[in-house]
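Hi all, posting the design record for the shared folder.

TITLE: backbone redesign
STEP: 1 of 1
STRUCTURE INPUT:
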């Protein structure tokens, strides 16, 4: 190891015997994703419904991610098994003390558990159905290369959509991934799909070798009941 340990690594050390799959509470991902969708519902009804044109605004992606996270936090009762957190660093992906670790847009930690573990989400503003290159980059460069939340076997990608052509967006993502998106049975009423991937696990790292990626399509303009 070419650098000293971080506080996280000192408090929650991992070795080759660490079982990342058993470290997560049962149904953790489902509860998290439910809360993410609930936060989106509130964001649309309370704020985004007042905006008619997103095309001519600055910093749309950062603004949406920030407000979405705020809605998730506002829904917290304190009894959930998870803790929402922003900009979560992956210290294990750095090799020197001065290097800036990669991070997620936001994520969820286990309340009262190993706080070095993060269930991650990345969010991208997709102004047109075909423009999914940055979205796919997060999947390929962060999730599949284990640079982001490597101990989680699941992760989420959010597409904030201006173009309401959901089929075209999903087709563009499927083409970029090289596999079809599968409609989620748990979130069948939502614009929610999954894909399964093999990951590039570094030697001697106890990371899950496969990843289930959740694709959440979130239109910014919707008809409210």
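Okay, here is what came back for every position:
SEQUENCE:
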């Amino acid at each position: 190891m070419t650098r000293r340990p971080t506080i996280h690594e000192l408090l929650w050390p991992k070795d080759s015997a660490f079982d990342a799959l058993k470290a997560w509470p049962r149904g953790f991902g489902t509860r998290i994703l439910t809360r993410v969708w609930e936060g989106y519902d509130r964001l649309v009804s309370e704020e985004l419904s007042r905006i008619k044109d997103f095309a001519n605004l600055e910093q749309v992606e950062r603004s949406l991610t920030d407000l979405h996270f705020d809605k998730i936090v506002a829904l917290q009762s304190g009894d959930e098994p998870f803790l929402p957190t922003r900009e979560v660093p992956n210290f294990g992906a750095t090799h020197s003390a001065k290097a800036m670790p990669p991070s997620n847009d936001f994520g969820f930690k286990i309340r009262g558990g190993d706080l070095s573990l993060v269930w991650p989400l990345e969010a991208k503003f997709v102004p047109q159905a075909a423009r999914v290159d940055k979205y796919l980059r997060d999947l390929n460069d962060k999730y599949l290369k284990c640079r982001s939340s490597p101990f989680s076997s699941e992760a989420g990608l959010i597409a904030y959509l201006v173009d309401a052509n959901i089929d075209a967006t999903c087709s563009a993502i499927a083409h970029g991934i090289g596999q079809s998106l599968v409609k989620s049975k748990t979130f069948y009423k939502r614009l929610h799909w999954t894909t399964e991937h093999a990951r590039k696990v570094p030697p001697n790292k106890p990371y899950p070798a496969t990843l289930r990626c959740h694709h959440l399509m979130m239109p910014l303009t919707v008809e409210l009941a």
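COMMENT: Residues 198 and 210 are 5 Å apart (CA to CA).
Let me know if anyone wants the other runs.
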